[in-house]
Design a protein that fits this description.
alpha+beta; Helix Hairpins; HSP40/DNAj peptide-binding domain; 3 domains; four-stranded mixed sheet; 9 helices; 28% helix; rod-shaped
């Protein structure tokens, strides 16, 4: 991006104060610095803003540009032969840029990141190298989505994933992990700049559904199919729990939709509820038909009584 008007590159006019110039550059650095924004267009905007700030931050140099003595690159307009002499001045705009293609803006980065940067906060910035020309910056954090099955989220466990940046990592899923919960993988984000530490990766969990189980906080509910005879006669039945099957007393006359509680068998001491569902046999033989016809004649009842508008 060619930078013809340094004021325009910073979103300012010639009437801007030195403080306005610094603030404008800080604002652009926060949004468009290559270590914070991978968009190539952002990098171009930042490069133009950096050149503009390098020209305008020195009041004397800014005054020379305003008078037309130098152009936006800092080059002499009237006498090109003085380029070498001008380039040897301590405040010249032609000094060596850093490997990232930007000049020494340590004062602005200090204002941007301050002690937080040195502590690994926003940007993780700190100056390094001779004369403060280079800088170290913590890598960007990365965010990903991770699908987790219902039982792994409820019981806890581990899963091995391959990050988009490459490399496999074992992820520990805590017991009782919930949908939308975030897990932090330290140092698995973007690489740092210079001696800056890498960023972290954050995994947002998306817990899948289960055909038999549902969850409400730390309480869980399972749908348990039972036979006709179990519903009528009651007795002991085997019930799956998160920790394995247990024996449960089924009352006589159990009905579909009825809920029984297993105390402390949920997640982290929560309860498990067993919702009953009567299931017909795969084949209704003649003996059952005849028995039920006789029973219905002798024991009529209306489970739908009272329904209606």
């Amino acid at each position: 991006m060619k930078m013809d008007d340094p004021y325009k590159a910073l979103g300012l006019t010639k009437s801007a104060s030195q403080d306005d110039i610094k603030k404008a550059y800080r604002k652009i650095a926060k949004t468009d610095h290559p270590d914070l924004n991978p968009d190539p267009a952002a990098a171009e905007r930042f490069k133009a803003a950096s050149s503009a700030y390098d020209l305008l931050k020195d009041p004397d140099q800014r005054a020379r540009f305003d008078r037309g003595e130098i152009d936006a690159t800092g080059q002499e307009r009237a006498q090109q032969k003085f380029y070498r002499d001008f380039a040897e001045r301590g405040d010249n705009p032609y000094r060596q840029y850093s490997s990232a293609g930007y000049g020494d803006f340590s004062d602005v980065f200090d204002d941007l990141f301050g002690d937080d940067g040195r502590r690994g906060g926003f940007g993780g910035f700190r100056r390094s190298g001779a004369g403060g020309q280079g800088f170290d910056m913590r890598g960007q954090d990365a965010r990903y989505d991770l699908e987790v099955d219902f039982l792994t989220a409820a019981k806890g466990g581990s899963t091995r994933i391959t990050l988009p940046t490459g490399g496999a990592v074992e992820v520990q899923i805590p017991e009782g992990a919930s949908d939308g919960q975030t897990i932090r993988l330290r140092g698995k984000g973007g690489p740092g700049h210079g001696q800056g530490a890498p960023g972290d990766a954050y995994l947002t969990l998306h817990v899948g559904s289960h055909p038999d189980w549902t969850r409400d906080g730390n309480d869980v509910t399972i749908t348990l199919p039972i036979t006709i005879d179990e519903a009528v006669l009651g007795g002991k039945v085997e019930v799956p729990t998160l920790d394995g099957a247990v024996s449960m007393n089924l009352p006589r006359g159990a009905t579909t939709g009825q809920k029984l509680r297993l105390k402390g068998k949920g997640i982290k001491g929560g309860n498990q509820y067993v919702q009953l569902k009567i299931v017909m046999p795969p084949n209704v033989d003649q003996d059952l038909v005849e028995f039920m016809e006789k029973w219905r004649q002798e024991n009529p009842y209306d489970p739908r009584g009272g329904m209606g508008v």
